[in-house]
């Protein structure tokens, strides 16, 4: 290239950056995007649920009203609504179901209940153990009552879902349960 053509080369062109800097077209596009491109979301897809009361989605043993009643010390059996969450799947963790990420259209059916207080939520977390962690979700109801959908919470498997599916030792969960200490 002559000295004259080097001066005229547009350093802002995608071709220049791919040729001279070895960037991929995607990297070039990201360089030209505004600084807040990846964090500037126009609207929330799923709002975080209010603190309390808040609906919790259950898919395993807590779908049994008597177990839920005893777990959070209710005076009578709770009124639960048939519900589902979308984008999740169930796997087995020993004898127990574990909610894991699923395909975008996949759904898991269960029941939802309005947890009234932080104390009730803490009792649920204790019941679920460190094998599960609380997560926000969007709950869709399978009945004719209102509301038809609400932001809520559920408990998802806290370990390595792939290890769970492959039925192999889950080091991630083991570390979480033992806090990295030998027991």
From TrEMBL:
What's a Pfam family this protein contains? GGACT
- Indicate what this protein is called per its UniProt record: Putative gamma-glutamylcyclotransferase
Q: Does the keyword Transferase apply?
A: yes
Cite the entry's keywords alphabetically: Transferase
Q: What GO molecular function terms would the record report?
A: transferase activity
Where is the Gamma-glutamylcyclotransferase AIG2-like domain positioned along the sequence? 56-172
Q: PANTHER family annotated for this entry?
A: AIG2-LIKE PROTEIN D (PTHR31544), GAMMA-GLUTAMYLCYCLOTRANSFERASE-RELATED (PTHR31544:SF4)
| Protein origin, superkingdom | Eukaryota
* Family listed: Belongs to the gamma-glutamylcyclotransferase family.
Protein's UniProt keywords contain DNA-binding: no
The protein's organism comes out as Penicillium angulare
Matching InterPro entries, A to Z?
A: AIG2-like, AIG2-like_dom, GGCT-like, GGCT-like_sf
């Amino acid at each position: 290239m002559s000295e004259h053509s080097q001066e005229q080369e547009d350093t802002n062109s995608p071709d220049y950056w791919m040729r001279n800097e070895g960037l991929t077209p995607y990297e070039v596009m990201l360089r030209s995007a505004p600084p807040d491109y990846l964090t500037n979301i126009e609207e929330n897809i799923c709002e975080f649920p209010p603190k309390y009361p808040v609906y919790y989605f259950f898919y395993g043993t807590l779908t049994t009203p008597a177990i839920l009643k005893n777990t959070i010390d209710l005076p009578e059996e709770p009124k639960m609504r048939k519900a589902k969450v979308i984008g999740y799947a169930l796997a087995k963790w020993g004898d127990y179901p574990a909610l894991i990420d699923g395909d975008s259209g996949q759904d898991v059916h269960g029941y939802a209940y309005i947890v009234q207080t932080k104390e009730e939520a803490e009792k649920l977390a204790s019941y679920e153990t460190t094998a599960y962690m609380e997560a926000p979700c969007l709950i869709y109801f399978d009945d004719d009552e209102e509301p038809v959908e609400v932001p809520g919470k559920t408990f998802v498997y806290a370990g390595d879902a792939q290890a769970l599916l492959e039925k192999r030792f889950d080091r991630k969960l083991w570390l979480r349960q033992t806090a990295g200490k030998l027991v």
